[in-house]
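Researcher: Re-running this chain for the archive, since the previous output was lost when a drive failed. Same request as before.
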Amino acid sequence: MYTAYLFSFGPIEIEYHGNVLYKLRCTPRQMEMTHEIVHKHSSYSDDIFNQVEEFLAGKRTDFRITYQLNGTQFQKNVWNALLDIPYGKTKTYKEIAQAIGCPGASRAVGMANNRNPLMLIIPCHRVIGCNSSLVGYVGGLEMKKTLLAVEQSKNIIVDFKDDFPNFGQMSLK
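Model: Regenerated structure tokens:
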């Protein structure tokens, strides 16, 4: 089953079968949110949507979703290493490469991040450049910056109006 929800930063597509999630990714902004796609929701996809909204509002630090990862063994190793990055913390591509036993594979780690089918759930936004720079994110660097701000805020009083003027106001549920 495929559906999409519109968030303030753009549409997120959700692919699932039964109660197993296979994909949660930003879609191109130019993608048209057709009435047919938007209204193919189920209680399962609504639960995913609600968990994402809670995460974006700083009210959730992890997800309670059954998922299946499809990719190469290297990609799965990277994605599993990303799950070890604590909420509110970051690691570099080099640190992830070292953690999976491939110390010279920083760029390959970046490519695996780019192919992460479960953004937010597999927290590739927590991976930064070796000089602490924000580099590469499927949702764009502003979204990555915002996600890290949500996670690093102790009081969860973060004003997104400058980056995302409609934050929290654009769901088509």
